[in-house]
Design goal:
two-stranded antiparallel ribbon; single chain
Length: 147
């Protein structure tokens, strides 16, 4: 591999530094949307309802370091679960790198512009609602993932 290639092309997720790992997040906010899982069928309903900690404009967690304490069911992405979370978006850099694929042109690491993810329509900006205002999650289902 070319030593000048970007780190995500040269390294596996396990080889990345914590700073490199964190920089993979494109800031789309999709992983911070509530999901509903049918325990009988395994079907997962994706909603447009954001965790109360998600800044709906920046698409970043307002209390990132404390998220697990403040939201106990927050799923912290790790090497151990990155390949098991089938609700992660197909555009997620962690998923792409774990599958040996490259980052898209709109990813901020490629474009060098944190707004590119929003311009590309990948982020939840302008499409998500706060859980404090949503009401019933069932009323906000936007897609169904089959088992």
């Amino acid at each position: 591999m070319n030593a000048d290639a970007p780190f995500w092309k040269r390294k596996t997720l396990a080889e990345m530094t914590s700073a490199e790992w964190e920089s993979l997040c494109d800031g789309c906010g999709q992983c911070c949307l509530h999901k509903l899982e049918d325990e009988d069928t395994g079907e997962i309903a994706l909603t447009n309802v954001a965790c109360r900690l998600l800044d709906l404009h920046l698409c970043r967690c307002k209390r990132y370091a404390e998220r697990k304490r403040l939201v106990p069911d927050c799923v912290i992405l790790s090497l151990q679960n990155v390949g098991q979370l089938r609700w992660m978006p197909k555009t997620c850099a962690y998923r792409l790198v774990s599958e040996g694929r490259d980052l898209p042109d709109w990813h901020p690491l490629v474009s060098r512009d944190p707004e590119s993810v929003h311009r590309a329509g990948i982020s939840v900006r302008g499409r998500a609602v706060s859980e404090r205002e949503a009401g019933d999650l069932e009323d906000h289902v936007v897609a169904i993932l089959e088992p």
